[in-house]
Design brief:
It contains 20 helices and 2 strands. The protein has helices at residues 32-36, 41-49, 52-65, 70-78, 81-94, 98-102, 119-126, 128-149, 155-172, 175-199, 209-214, 225-234, 239-252, 254-258, 265-307, 316-328, 332-366, 374-399, 402-430, 440-466; strands at residues 108-110, 116-118. The chain has 467 residues and is mainly alpha-helical.
């Protein structure tokens, strides 16, 4: 968004949030206090990250294996942010969001209006299908939360209502409104969940030190393979969030403030400064999502596992509420229902807000619209904001099992992790301006995470499609 010379937001927005206008250039803050004023993309991302993966998939894994896979939950939280950060580095320095950046990958195939695009663009189109399945599980989980409070109407109909409200918010809301709206909802329920996990220690389900240590011994129970890999796909900064983050960074203004790359030392200084702001934002994302994810796993392992209960089907939200009622008393049922709705609904809104931007950008990459035709881009954005929720609500109407929908969808999304990480590595060495390149330590971590992701994706393909 536009800023004043004192780094305070102005009331108006530029006509094209994705353009690199010379008059939008400004100096980056030079200290932590100044950087904090420009944080935001990570908070919107947390609105999407902290949701179905944590409240459903993470607790489901805990209910199956107890504490034995705590280490894997931590790996899921911590192994993806380096990819997020390096994608952000490329976007801030180039002004190119995800699909335009990945269109630089080698292997061109025909598109529209005589254009040729990278093979990855068609891969992205294909992967919209499992994304819609995941979103159906998210909408359905939120619908079940409302249905638990108002059982006179089935969860499938509440899901339709949630889809309609999400559409209205996206069509009428601005980035600034969305940022504040999601932050309040996610932080509130995260605080409640952390409190509940702490109070668990005052009950008969208190977690022992030995159980915690057992969770760090790198066990991988065979009966939990599918649930564990689905949790990996659905927690932390997933492939959808890695993609979306570049668009939120552009709309926040990091790339515009740095300006188009040139040969001057001034551009290098500005670019490094705004990259530092982005990196602070990424660190905040990592901190918040870790604090939000671990308590859900603790409650699943500490309560549901000991009770022998596993979330599934139409009883998903009802069983999950037992984590709170067992710990705090029956009155906490309403606390959980309200909080679960907040988290799942914020995921639905944030995910839709990101997906419509990516979809509209995809149409530009494919050659169906001109990249700089901002008005047409907005029309496509509004179309997808209506069409996608209709499909997701319909999917829940058919399956009515959030755990199954999320598990299947996230397994497919997990396969994307090494593709995105590999693409980031390619961009880093082939297209990133060397003057703003990462340190060798960041490169080493990126390669390590790429190796982890390739191993897990290979394992998923072997288990689900070959063995």
């Amino acid at each position: 968004m536009a800023q004043s010379e004192h780094n305070e937001p102005l009331e108006h927005e530029p006509d094209d949030l994705y353009g690199l206008h010379p008059d939008a250039i400004q100096e980056p803050p030079t200290d932590l206090k100044g950087r904090l004023k420009f944080l935001g993309p990570g908070l919107v991302l947390v609105g999407s990250v902290v949701g179905s993966g944590e409240i459903i998939l993470t607790t489901t894994l805990g209910s199956i294996v107890g504490f034995s896979m705590l280490w894997f939950v931590l790996v899921s939280c911590w192994s993806k942010n380096i990819v997020q950060a390096e994608l952000g580095r490329y976007t801030v320095s180039s002004g190119e969001p995800f699909l335009h950046a990945f269109n630089r990958l080698p292997g061109k195939v025909p598109a529209f209006r005589g254009k040729k695009v990278s093979w990855y663009i068609y891969f992205w189109l294909l992967w919209i299908i499992p994304d819609l399945l995941v979103n159906g599980g998210i909408y359905g989980g939120a619908g079940q939360a409302i249905q638990a409070a108002f059982p006179s109407l089935g969860s499938e109909w509440w899901t339709v209502g949630i889809a309609i409200v999400a559409v209205i918010i996206i069509l009428s809301g601005t980035y600034r409104f969305l940022e504040k709206f999601l932050t309040i909802m996610v932080v509130t329920f995260t605080f409640i969940t952390v409190t509940c996990a702490i109070l668990l220690q005052m009950t008969e389900y208190a977690i022992t030190w030995d159980e915690m240590m057992n969770g760090l011994t790198f066990g991988f129970p065979a009966m939990a393979i599918v649930a564990a890999l689905a949790m990996y796909g659905g927690t932390g900064v997933g492939t959808g969030e890695q993609t979306a983050y570049t668009y939120w960074c552009v709309e926040k203004g990091y790339a515009r403030f740095a300006g188009a790359a040139d040969d001057s030392d001034d551009w290098v200084r500005r670019a490094k400064g705004w990259i530092a702001v982005m990196q602070t934002d990424v660190k905040l994302t990592l901190l918040l999502l870790t604090c939000a994810t671990i308590p859900f796993y603790m409650l699943g392992a500490g309560v549901l596992y000991r009770l022998g209960q596993e979330p599934n089907g139409l009883e998903t939200i009802g069983i999950l509420s037992g984590m709170y009622t067992t710990t705090l008393g029956e009155w906490a049922f309403w606390l959980f229902i309200i909080g679960a709705f907040f988290v799942l609904f914020s995921t639905a809104v944030s995910g839709l807000g990101a997906n419509v931007r990516v979809f509209a950008d995809g149409m530009a990459v494919l050659g169906l619209i001109e990249r700089n035709d901002y008005q047409t881009r907005m029309k496509i954005l509004r179309f997808w904001a209506v069409f996608a929720p209709i499909i997701t609500a319909t999917a829940y109407f058919y399956f009515q099992n959030p755990v199954w929908m999320l598990t299947v969808g996230q397994l497919f999304k997990a396969i994307k992790f090494p593709l995105i990480a590999g693409g980031v590595i390619y961009l880093r060495y082939k297209h990133l301006d060397p003057r703003v390149a990462p340190s060798w330590k960041a490169d080493a971590i990126l390669w390590l995470c790429f190796a982890i992701m390739i191993s897990l994706a290979t394992y998923i393909i072997w288990v689900k499609f070959i063995a």
